[in-house]
Peptidase S9 prolyl oligopeptidase catalytic domain-containing protein
Amino acid sequence: MGKAILERGMNVITYEGPGQPTVRRKQNFGFIHEWEKVVTPVVDYLLTRPEVDPKSIGLLRYSFGGMLAPRAAAFEHRLAPVFAVDGVYEFASVV
């Protein structure tokens, strides 16, 4: 998805939050549901970049992240679009 976004002339930043693989292994941070605590520092950083339009910062999350994105947006009001692609709600229903 990031490549497609870049090809359309937009910027992309990727990151892992607490509980995700690299953060868990290297920093021993467990999962937190307060995803706004993860997203807000990323937005703060983006606002230091001259190439970033502060009115056009969006959030795109997949799977469980797609369930956390709306929560982050409820607290982080500097996000413009939020794309939440949720995961499987009930695993038994797809087996």
User: Anything to note?
Assistant: The helical segments are 2-7, 21-27, 36-46, 63-75. Residues 63-75 form the longest helix (13 residues). The domain at 2-94 is CATH 3.40.50.1820 (Rossmann fold).
